Amino acid sequence: MKEPKHEQLDSDDPEFEEFDRIRDMLHARISEFAEEHDLPVGALSPLLLSRYEPGMQYGSHVDDALMGGMRTDVSFTLFLSEPTSYDGGELIIESASGEETFKLEAGALVAYPATSLHCVGAVTRGARLAAVGWARSFVRDPAQRELLFDLDTARRQLFAREGKSAEFDLISKSFANLLRMWADD
Questions:
Q1: How far apart are CA 98 and CA 94, in angstroms?
Q2: What is the separation of C-alpha 42 from the centre of its chain, rounded to a whole number of angstroms?
């Protein structure tokens, strides 16, 4: 099996002295994102920083079911390079509706089921930097997570459009009670 072609930095890398500070900052931002969006995240894995230079890529794969003893339900990629600073290097995720391609602004995050086949296309110019990690959800079942996400999205949109209302309260109650019913803590 051919090894993926990219560089991965971790906390043991003596050439990357600021890794811990950057990793902690990214971890804090990802945790804030989960809280801001009421995502039922139970735990986050340590982050990995990846660097792709011209000719580097990561072939099609599915992430490990367990990372550091933690079940991985959701994978995420936090883009750290501006998309104009490199060519290629798109994150490609296979879904039931086909392939979805992502090349986002620095600071943007894409989350996707850890069960999805995905890859990183070859970089042809510049350098692509990204932080990758995994989350264990309080809600194990992906269909239940999707239903909760959709319900919460509708709830937030209703509040933004109309403010607090009886309908908003009823949807909020349903969201909270479904989460209570399905959550593993």
A1: 6
A2: 14
The per-residue pLDDT for range 25-54, each reduced to its tens digit, is 777 777 777 777 666 677 778 788 899 999
Q: Which residue has the tokens 């042809």?
A: 124
Tokens at 174, concatenated: 């349903």
Check if the beta carbon of residue 87 is closer than 8 Å to that of residue 123: yes
Query: Residue 67's Cα: distance from chain center in Å?
Result: 15
Model pTM greater than 0.85? no
Say how far apart CA 159 and CA 109 lie, in whole Å. 24
Residue position matching structure tokens 């883009």: 79
Residue 6 corresponds to which tokens in the numbers above? 């990219």
Listed in sequence order, the residues at least 6 apart from 159 whose beta carbon sits closer than 8 Å to its beta carbon are: 168
**Which residues is 126 bridged to in the sheet?**
86
SS3 for the chain, per residue? CCCCECEEECCCCCCCCCHHHHHHHHHHHHHHHHHHCCCCEEEECCCEEEEECCCCEEEEECCCCEECCEECCEEEEEECCCHHHEEECCEEEEECCEEEEECCCCCCEEEEECCCCEEECCEEEECEEEEEEEEEECCCCHHHHHHHHHHHHHHHHHHHHHCCCHHHHHHHHHHHHHHHHHCCC
